[in-house]
Amino acid sequence: MDLNILNSEIQEFIDRNIGVSIAKLALQKNPFLEVEWIAILNQIEAKTKAKDKLPNWFSAKKIIYPVKISIEQTSSEKTALYKSTIVSGAALIDLTGGFGVDDYYFSKSVNSVAHCEINPELSEIVAHNYMQLYVTNITCHSGDSLNTLQSLNQKWDWIYIDPSRRNDAKGKVFMLKDCLPNVPDNLDNYFKNSEAILIKTAPLLDISAGVLELQNVKTIHIVALENDVKELLWELHKDYGGKIEIKTINILKDKTETFAFIWNNDPQTSNYSKPQKYLYEPNSAIMKSGGFYEVGNFFTLNKLQKHSHLYTSTNLISFPGRIFEIENCISYSKLEMKKFLQDKKANVTTRNFPDTVENIRKKWKIKDGGTRYCFFTTDENNNKIVLICNKIQ
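Below the sequence we write its predicted structure tokens.
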């Protein structure tokens, strides 16, 4: 960690160039001989990425940023804040600390936090940044986290792990055993040190596969940010063997959509009907959860078709996702398409439909945009239909 990067003139230069093309800046001559040019460019690029994702870090003075991949891989502040609502108690240890955003928020819910990071330079950067952020209840430990866990030799209220996929696992089905640390192999050891474990994984992990690999799963949190699923959180409790709760969370600018249900791997039969007055599209967290029967049953909605994952009703209700009023329901035929959509402007979505959005636009010369929303889908009798809608929510 080069503290010369904190010189006031260099920091002012970094701030002036937030958002500027790094490729263009790289062609300039380094005006600061005491620091390598590539290091300054890295600070500009990383801080630019932090502007929206990590506003507390971005606005604080004398923050040092690691290589940009650490910023790309770290939790956003909004998802980290949600994680902090899950944990509580006297002590938490994070075995895969990284840039330390999660631990910053854990420290607001837990009395003391141990940040473990195998990269010594990153560990040093994180410790420095915590001082700039006035955080005093996090201790940083550099080195192998399993060794740190053993050497500290204490009971923790929570162990937090964000395993990273091994480079040699590319192309394989995403499994926790293909990550570092190998959580399934180390679970017994972890439970000797804590009775509660929180594991963060990428959305790519299949829920059924994760349940098979892990023991004692009590709750799975599916966290989306602006309808984009960012992470799965696996809450494990020692000796727990009961039913698994799925919690879906979609964090939006002005609100947070939540929906929870008990996980059931056995398919259940939904109620089906033709399109009625209103159309409902679940948010991405619910879509990832697979709770298609549960969300329809809870909100007393009919499904259009088994694989469409679109719902309908006669009366308007509040719903965790997008809501539309159906203006027209047409058959997917040349006559109907020419009459209603050809050469028109519309937002096109496909659900359980045999063609792509790109091909549909090209074939019928549909321009993108406008206030009209069109869902190309299949009805309960397997007929291809198009729902022409106005967006309500």
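The mean pLDDT is 94.
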